[in-house]
Amino acid sequence: MKLTKTLLGALAASTALAGAAAAQTEMKLWYHGAGNDVESGLLNTVIEEFNSAQSDYSVVVESFPQQSYNESVVASALAGNLPCILDVDGPVMPNWAWAGYLQPLPISQEAIEGHLDSTIGRYDDEIYSVGLWDAAVALYARQSTLDELGLRTPTLEEPWSKDELMAALDAAKASGNYDYALDLGTAWTGEWYPYAFSPFMQSFGGDIVDRSTYASADGVINSDEAIEFGEWWQSLFEEGYAPGTSQDPADRDVGFIEGKYAFSWNGNWAAAATLDAGVDDVVFLPAPDFGTGPKIGAGSWQFGVSSACETPEGAAAFVEHALQDKYMAAFSDGIGLIPGTKEAAQMTVKYADGGPLAVFFDLSEKQALVRPVTPGYVVAAKVFEKALADIANGADVADTLDAAADEIEKDIESNQGYGH
């Protein structure tokens, strides 16, 4: 009799658990990290712990290769087949929101308190997405190089001016110790160009579009300040300071490590490999100030809720769960990116105060400028990339930037101003 009661109790408990599991509403999540086992494993942990921590929702992930992810989302949106939760690249988010792929994310203010501002995806006075990390770019150098060339080590409080930067490049070039004074990473294409190089233009006083209205590019991307930037940009290649657009990708990856370049403009994602390669005296310097303050790019992958999602409150609950400091720290330790909060940074190996990459958190906090928050960015970014590549290859600066302005203007007009 006692055994029978025990069995009945076990059956009742198992039936209750099955009922609870059946009651969970499934929410599909699409992610861009297929093929990255470390990243996928970390995300699976977040999902598993969310699913077991509550009984209302069950998140199921489907991962895509990053190269085809955006196209997959657009095609599925047109077919009316979007999941509930979308992974979205920060600068792309306004386009997806404008196109109706995303709805505002009903997340609490408490959940994003203390986050790097660049991890919060805002568009049209609404929050549409939030990320667990960001990325930052710095000027890589060896302290021994700075010392040998007699250069001041710039700081966040006192970055190099344009004149100081050029004096440093001149000194490196004159030393004869390097193939080139500066590695800009021109072997990389695509989003690297607007992410890494438009902040230079913005520091000169130009920009890709007019951020006050987002209705025009004319007089901005081809302004006097933008032309001054373009002439400086072209001089880097014409005068032999930096390799051009035909740079060997292998040199981009290891040229600084091997001593081919005195300085390298690169992201925090490459910093750990540089340290691991034995460049013990590497220093990560802030962006130079070209006149209107030093600036670097910002805004990485974030979670948002699709317009097809019938449980936006559940999607928001998942995002809030994922934003715990322990998860942001785990992602940082696993894939090397900058945690979204100072508290999470203190839990990491490399980004805690005194850590070898702690400066990157400060760079994101103090120098970061998100790319233009407009649906038209996805077109304008490609126009900007082509213009800079053409200028690097010798095209007339003013004519090229005028043509870029015309192309962006036509795109804005053909899309009725993108709703701005």
Automatic annotation (TrEMBL):
GO cellular component: ATP-binding cassette (ABC) transporter complex, substrate-binding subunit-containing
GO MF annotation: an example: maltose binding
One GO-annotated biological process of the protein: maltose transport
Record has Methyltransferase as a keyword: no
Signal sequence bounds: 1-18
Alphabetized Pfam families for the sequence: SBP_bac_8 (PF13416)
Gene3D superfamilies according to UniProt: Periplasmic binding protein-like II
Superkingdom, taxonomy of origin: Bacteria
Record's keyword terms, sorted: Signal, Transport
Protein family membership: Belongs to the bacterial solute-binding protein 1 family.
Entry protein name: Carbohydrate ABC transporter substrate-binding protein (CUT1 family)
Species, as recorded: Primorskyibacter sedentarius
